[in-house]
């Protein structure tokens, strides 16, 4: 159907509606329709012309050869007609004959919009309805308000009308949108990576003078960091130049400068409106599998490469001290704590001084309590054996250091391992004219073992403990003086907060000198700040030395792997942030969801359709690590109206999501106070294509089985949801399916999706490019929800499924990506697909994806 409007000499094309007559049939398959955007000149006198064309070999070209007939009517004719419905005769081009009838009706969709919007539908058969809506939505659309429009752009909307089991009609609105976070989150991340690596270089330089061996390793590592920074700066510069679409099309997934950008990231929302029922929303984020396509998968993905990397680090650890992943992760965490808590403690100490000048006791006690709490966090983070042992190792790396076993090693050469190479002998556990040292071969996995770090007379091992005593003394003095001030103020209040922290560190207590109280408090506060700064500096240097070992043990491979991990994490985080924003904006009036958000966190369930064969194994390995890394992410809701932002080092990211004043003030107190909201990411994978058939019959599907089992255990381990009967039953069924040996068991995906929705979580669906298999999954999920939750007539299930795949948002997604309205399947491939994952005839063909 070709639709034109005529008004005041203005002729404009609205669109052509997809073909209605399947080959060999004169019976149309669907109702179809049009709507007009608010900026179109449609008035009561406007004429609307319908031109109908037949299908020709699966195509619907608007040519004279396919022309069947046309008819016209005015808006006034429709509005004044009985039941606001017109039955129009289709006439041939020369007006010599009638070739058919078109029924046009006005559809009021006030339930969808705040105001009334009229939709003129060409009613050809009462089987199913597809109403085509403006690609930009309506200005009064609840789904496109100011908050949503700040993040989600270029919406494509389709509206359907389906019949329920009780012969009533439901309206279904499908909206797909691009997300500004596709590019903004990766660009912020790259800037943070550059900032962090620049700081890492400075930290390595701040280690001070090192022996020649360690200094050469440091120079090599700094050189590698410089190279990464340069590459990231070039990538960021290229991204800043980009304008146009807010998504990376599937055909660009191998572009090096776009490796941080998620593939084909879109949001999809289905809104269901049933008579006399509250509207229901169902959201899903579609995104290509987070993977390093530009780096390839010849040697596997991150999961395999990281495992290989750790093995190689152990075998080459004679150059340095080997620290296992959990130790290096702890070192990064300590660096993060130092960077956050030291300035916080300093600020609280200054605030204590300012508050002490005021004649109010309670604020003084509140500030003192906060100071104690933050100092306690500082103590527990840094009083770690790793820090102490790393300080000893750093001392041993200074020029001129000679360990206590140097002489014995020199005097007893026969004790050396005859199988060690010259280099290994030169750098064995006790060596050290050049300052290097390493644990014995059998002890390399335990750097804090007594054999791993030399104990020696030149360095006083109790010095680190004395530093903590100084912190405790200073804190005790501050507490004692505040106590005395409150007593002198005769406030008759209870004594100051307990001295638990100070007592843990040391039982030493100092009397308060009888001097001017404020001057004395200032001296004590400065002393505390100085002691904390000294501890922080020592800890910073020690863990920086640990991280030097990590980079030096397998420098080129390790930093290259970090680049891959950075890119994959960037894609995963952009998709997660998109889903969080969408879920938050939809749930601002849902008190139960908001309570869950701050009390428990948010489940983010990734559904993957990748096969465990060929390159897609590497993609799945990348995806597994990238999604697992999301557990390091927290969200914070802020009062503002701007961009979603992220900050902090690689091991702990916080994403701030702004809300305008009126929305922010309606949040629970915990959220307004900036509580960090945790994320619970899980991944389930079931391959469905012909490559998965090969893997199941002749290959290895252990990766998929391990991923599903591991993530089921994560879900099952959330006790907060175990009390809900429906969730418990679904979890039990999911557990049974995970361990069942069944080919292409897509029930795992269906069950995981249902559990996620019951948990108020985020649903994300992926395949290689989120274009073809993802489209089949999303449309199947939508129709299943209509059947199971909204009583879609079972006789309409397959028709509705075909309708969404043929005319809905997903075929528009294909068009956006490859400029062709064909899913990239061939008949041979589809024979391997589960039944309900196959698109309708005429919508697929093998094209380059």
Automatic annotation (TrEMBL):
Keywords: Hydrolase, Lipid metabolism. Residues 428-438 have a biased composition (Polar residues). The keyword Transmembrane helix does not apply. It comes from the Eukaryota. The keyword Zinc does not apply. Residues 407-456 are annotated as: Disordered. One of its GO terms (cellular component) is cytoplasm. GO terms for molecular function: phosphatidylinositol-3,4-bisphosphate 4-phosphatase activity. Residues 416-427, 439-456 have a biased composition (Basic and acidic residues). PANTHER family: AGAP000124-PA, INOSITOL POLYPHOSPHATE 4-PHOSPHATASE TYPE II. This is Inositol polyphosphate-4-phosphatase type II B.
């Amino acid at each position: 159907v070709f639709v034109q409007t005529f008004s005041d000499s203005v002729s404009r094309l609205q669109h052509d509606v997809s073909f209605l007559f399947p080959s060999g049939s004169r019976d149309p398959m669907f109702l179809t329709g049009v709507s007009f955007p608010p900026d179109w000149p449609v008035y009561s006198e406007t004429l609307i012309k319908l031109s109908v064309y037949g299908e020709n070999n699966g195509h619907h070209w608007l040519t004279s050869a396919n022309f069947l007939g046309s008819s016209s009517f005015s808006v006034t004719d429709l509005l004044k007609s009985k039941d606001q419905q017109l039955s129009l005769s289709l006439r041939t081009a020369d007006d010599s004959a009638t070739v058919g009838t078109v029924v046009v009706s006005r559809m009021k969709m006030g339930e969808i919009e705040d105001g009334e919007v009229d939709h003129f539908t060409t009613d050809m058969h009462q089987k199913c309805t597809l109403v085509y809506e403006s690609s930009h939505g309506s200005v009064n659309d609840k789904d496109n308000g100011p908050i949503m429009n700040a993040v989600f752009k270029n919406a494509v909307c389709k509206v359907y009308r389906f019949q329920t089991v009780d012969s009533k009609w439901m309206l279904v609105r499908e909206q797909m949108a691009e997300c500004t976070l596709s590019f903004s989150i990766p660009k912020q991340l790259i800037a943070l990576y550059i900032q962090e690596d620049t700081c890492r270089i400075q930290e390595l330089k701040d280690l001070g003078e090192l022996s020649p061996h360690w200094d050469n390793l440091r120079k090599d590592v700094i050189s590698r960091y410089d190279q990464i920074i340069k590459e990231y700066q070039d990538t960021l510069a290229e991204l800043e130049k980009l304008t146009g679409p807010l998504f990376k099309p599937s055909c660009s997934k191998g572009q090096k400068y776009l490796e941080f950008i998620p593939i084909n990231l879109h949001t999809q929302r289905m809104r269901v409106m049933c008579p006399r029922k509250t509207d229901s929303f169902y959201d899903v984020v579609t995104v290509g599998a987070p993977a390093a396509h530009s780096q390839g998968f010849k040697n596997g993905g991150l999961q395999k490469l990281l495992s290989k990397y750790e093995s190689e680090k152990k075998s080459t650890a004679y150059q340095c001290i080997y620290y296992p992943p959990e130790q290096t992760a702890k070192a990064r965490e300590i660096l993060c704590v130092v960077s956050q808590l030291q300035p916080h403690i300093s600020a609280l100490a200054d605030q204590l001084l300012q508050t002490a000048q005021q004649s109010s006791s309670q604020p003084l006690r509140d500030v003192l309590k906060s100071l104690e709490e933050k100092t306690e966090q500082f103590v527990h983070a840094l009083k770690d054996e790793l820090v102490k042992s790393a300080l000893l190792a750093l001392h041993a790396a200074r020029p001129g250091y000679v360990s206590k076993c140097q002489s014995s090693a020199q005097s007893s050469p026969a004790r050396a391992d005859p199988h060690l190479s010259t280099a290994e002998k030169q750098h064995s556990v006790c060596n050290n004219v050049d300052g290097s040292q390493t644990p014995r071969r059998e002890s390399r996995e335990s750097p804090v073992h007594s054999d791993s770090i030399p104990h020696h007379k030149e360095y006083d091992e109790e010095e680190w403990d004395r530093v903590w005593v100084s912190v405790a003394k200073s804190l005790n003095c501050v507490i004692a003086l505040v106590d005395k001030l409150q007593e002198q103020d005769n406030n008759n209040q209870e004594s100051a907060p307990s001295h638990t922290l100070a007592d843990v560190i040391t039982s030493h207590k100092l009397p308060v000198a009888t001097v001017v109280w404020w001057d004395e408090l200032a001296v004590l506060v400065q002393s505390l700040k100085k002691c904390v700064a000294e501890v922080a500096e020592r800890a910073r240097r020690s863990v920086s030395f640990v991280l030097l070992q990590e980079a030096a043990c397998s420098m080129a491979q390790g930093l290259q792997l970090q680049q891959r991990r950075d890119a994959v994490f960037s894609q995963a985080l952009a998709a997660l942030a998109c889903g969080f924003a969408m879920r938050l904006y939809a749930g601002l009036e849902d008190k139960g969801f908001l309570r869950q958000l701050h009390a428990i966190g948010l489940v983010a369930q990734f559904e993957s359709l990748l096969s465990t064969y060929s390159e897609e194994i590497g993609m799945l390995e990348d995806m597994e690590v990238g999604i697992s890394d999301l557990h390091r992410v927290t969200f914070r809701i802020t009062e503002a109206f701007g961009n979603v932002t992220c900050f902090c080092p690689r091991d702990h990211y916080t994403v701030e999501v702004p809300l305008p004043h009126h929305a922010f003030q309606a949040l629970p107190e915990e959220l307004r106070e900036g509580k960090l909201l945790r994320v619970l990411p899980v991944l389930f994978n079931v391959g469905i294509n012909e490559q998965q058939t090969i893997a199941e019959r002749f290959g290895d599907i252990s990766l998929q089985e391990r991923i599903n089992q591991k993530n089921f255990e994560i879900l099952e381990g959330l006790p907060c949801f175990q009390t809900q009967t429906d969730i418990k039953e679904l979890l039990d069924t999911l557990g049974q399916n995970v361990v069942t040996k069944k080919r292409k068991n897509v029930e795992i995906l269906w069950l995981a999706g249902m559990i996620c929705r019951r948990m108020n979580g985020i649903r994300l669906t992926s395949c290689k490019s989120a274009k073809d298999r993802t489209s089949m999954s999303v449309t199947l999920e939508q129709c299943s929800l209509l059947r199971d939750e909204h009583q879609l007539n079972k006789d309409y299930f397959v028709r509705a499924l075909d309708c969404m795949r043929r005319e809905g948002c997903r075929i528009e997604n294909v068009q956006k990506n490859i400029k062709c309205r064909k899913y990239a399947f061939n008949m041979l491939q589809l024979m391997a697909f589960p039944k309900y994952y196959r698109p309708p005839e005429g919508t697929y063909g093998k094209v380059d994806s």
